[in-house]
Amino acid sequence: MGVVSVDEGLRRAEAVGLDLVEVAPNSSPPVCKILDYGKYKYEAQKKANIARKRQKTFEVKEIKVRPSIDVHDYDVKMRSMIRFLNDGDKVKVTVRFRGRELAHQNLGQRVLERIRDDLDELAKVEQFPKMEGRLMTMVISPR
Q1: Residue 58 burial (CB count, 10 A)
Q2: Which helix (H) or strand (E) holds 116?
């Protein structure tokens, strides 16, 4: 419709039975549209809901192991980690040391290295192993 005054725009919108909505207030001159404002708000809310649904959310699953983990227990934990990674979740692997095990942190380091090597083609290390008190943690995420 070109550049018209605010009064003229309001008259035209009222003649059609719709609302005059300012679409781009920062442009010079401001851009307005004649439309049904209720319908406009509804569709904008619908677009926002669809965008929120498509947004990928992931959880951090935690797997706890011990430095002296047995073969079968290791395999069970590994199956869980593979399932979590295939679902798109991150996995936080925690090695808990008790008592005198704290003197042998290299055993916990070896367990975490073994997990990293076994999951090499499926996941990447996001946070390398570090000690936090009696716990050694590592975070891995899917590739």
Answers
A1: 12
A2: helix 105-118
